[in-house]
Structure prediction request, 175 residues.
Amino acid sequence: MTEAPAEKTPAPPAEPPQNNKLEITQEALNELMGKTRTETRAQSEKEIAKLKADYEEKLRLASLKEEERVKAEQESAAKKLNDELTAARRELALKSAEAELAKLSLDPALAGIVLGKDADETAKNIAALKKQVDAMVKKLFDANIKAGAPERGGTAGGSADNDALRKAAGLPPKK
Prediction:
């Protein structure tokens, strides 16, 4: 009677080490905390300035007569809408410039650099950039042409390698 081979049970997985501690030097911690404090302070100062300006505006509006207050609120709302419209126009112009740059095979990330006050100025800036890039490419191309063509075979000794490969393949060497 033959015994069936004993099934091997896999060994239980080794438990991962429980040392999940993050080690950091005091200097790195101080630097990180300093950056965090500076960022938080700057953000808080901006928020405080905005709240203070809002509060002062509300005090000013409260001291005005009803008719003047309504007029001031309307002017404030109009200014806010105008600012939003300006931002939307800039975003649209930026997207348009990115598309134009992409058509010319230029990096769309340059859109912020070529963006002008209006579409005509942006188009002129893009054309000037394209002209400069083309001139640089031509200069590099001419420099490479003057340096001469690489040796046949692509690398030093490439011809010998090619001859060995041709011989191994049963082909006659090239002359």
Observations:
- The chain is about 70% helix and 0% strand.
